Structure formats: structure tokens, C-alpha cells
Prior knowledge:
Layout lengths: L5 H16 L11 E7 L2 E6 L2 E6 L5 H12 L14 E3 L6 E7 L2 E2 L10 H13 L22 H18 L5 H9 L17 E2 L8 E3 L7 E3 L6 E2 L3 H13 L4 H13 L12 H25 L6 H14 L9 H5 L6
Antiparallel strand pairs: 1-2, 2-3, 3-5, 4-5, 6-8, 7-10, 8-9
Helix pairs in contact: 3-7, 4-5, 4-8, 5-8, 5-9, 6-7, 6-8, 8-9
Amino acid sequence: MTPDPLLPALTARAKARAHARTPAPAPTCPCVAATLAHRPDGTVVRHADTVAKAHAPGTDPTALTHRVTAAATLPGVYLPPLDPTPALVPVPPHDRLVTFWPYGTPVDPDDPTTAPWEAAGTLLAHLHRTTLTTLTTPTTGTTPTALPPMRGPQKAAAAVATLRATTRRHPHPAATPVLRAWSTLPPWARAEAPMPDAATLCHGDLHLGQLVRHPAPDGPWLLIDVDDLGVGVPAWDLARPAAWYACGLLPPGDWSRFLAAYRTAGGPAVPPDGDPWPALDVPARALTVQTAARALTKAIAAGREPDEMERLLIDACARMAAVPAAVPADAPAQLGGASPK
């Protein structure tokens, strides 16, 4: 197997950037170095207090620059980039855009009791309440322009497209309810039409892996990952935890903590009190389909049947397909969980 040339090239960039900030003792470098993620849609490496991310092949450099610039204008909400402009690393067969960030301590996946649901809700509310015209880049004093749409619906559509391609080669009966549920969503949620909100700043892919403490190890929680940042429907950012709660994958107490923190901080995606589900129904359905599509694709690729958690998602899609979207208060029960009331 031919070694992937990206990892050594990216690691070298991270090391050089780290020691441009903090010179290493000669003649050796005792710094912590690690590969934090290595996937087709992004590779992340750490060297000392610096993180380098190679974004997906084909990433639009102008859109990424706008997203990085926007993150730089949101102190206390987003982890600030180390450089305002992405670098280009020539690595065959695809050159990769790279951004540099300070290292932050991630959420501990092995200790759910410490999951920062309140921090996630509060940060989202602050992000959603940001007026685009007030964003000012600290280094230049300019306002970012032409911020692209957030990419949540695009990612959901990509997951469904991958499932369709997989099941053309390897048919599976569980694909039917997933695809049927997808077909019931409005065009904007399937990335087939503009989103109804083009002014609210959104993360686009919120989950607990998108929070870190900075300065490490115990600074305040901040959002990370600008790949999907943009303008759009803010309820999309609440949709993944809402979908997990509705499917029975997130404990009611965690969902309540998250939602209460968002509301307390004045988040505009849901009403300040009462039933939030009319605002969350369509995005939560879309995220349920996206997650089910990815899970089923993974199971088929591994040559196995969906496991218990994956079946919960597929079963939720089957129930969703039978009930029109945007049903009010009892929607969570239809997805497989308890009503928020």
C-alpha cells in the first residue's frame, strides 16, 4: 500500500507553525505530537500547542477564508484561528487547503457525565444572536463579507446520496424507510432550494466533538470547526441533540440542560418557552435521516446488519415517513422518544 503523503506534509507544517510561535529547545523537540483525525473529509494533526487541519479536497478557498475570518471575529464563541488565510499544501493527487489553530482540550468521550451541554447551548445562542454587520476582524478592523450558506443540508444530502450509491450495489431493505423519510422533507432541508433564513449565523454541524477548552486544559468552552459555518436556519444547530433525544439516544436530562441553556441565553431558534418542537421538527428529521443513512452505509460496507443503536435510527425513519413533517407537540414520540412536555 502506498503511504499517504498528506500526513507527513501536514505534520511538518504543524511543527513549523508551532515553533514559529514557541521555539523548541535544541537539538531535539520534546513536544507532544499526534494525529487527531484522518478522514477523507479532513485530516487534523497536533504539534505542541498548534493544530493544523487539512480540509477536504475541492474545498472552495474563498468560502473557507470567509469562514475562518468569521471565526476570528467571534471571541468567546469560536476558537480563534492562528492565521486569517488558509495555506495551500501541494500533496498529490489533490492540493489541500490548511488552517492553523491553537490546541484546545476536547470533550472526554468516555465520561458522559462531564458533557458540556449547558456550554453548547449557551455558545449556540450567542452565535445565533450575532448580527452579521457587527462582525469585525480584530487584525484588520474589516467586516467579513459574502459569508456562504451553512452546509448542514448539503451534508445530509451527501449522506443520502452515498446510501443510494451503496444500495445500488448492495441492496438492503432498511434503506427503504430511510429514503422514504428523506423524500417527505421540504426542498430546503434536502439542499434542493435556498434556506428560508439567510441572515442567521449558524455552526452547521453541532455535536459535542465541536467543543474544546481553550486555553488548555481547563479554559472556557469554545466552538471549533468552520467547514460548515455560514448563514441559515438556526434550528439546524439544535437538530442533532433534538433527534438523539427524540430517538431515545440522548437522556431527557441532557436534552433539557441543553435546551434550557440555549433559551436562557436568548437563542432565537425556538420560542423562549413552551413547546420547541414545531421549530425543530424538520431539521431533527433531516439529522435523523442523515445519521441513519451514514450508519446503514457503514453497516453495509462492513458486511453486517445494523446494530441496536442503528436500528433505533432506522425505525425512527420508518415512523417519520408515515407522519407529515412539522407536526407539533407529539413529534418526539413519533420519532421514538418522549415528548418534551
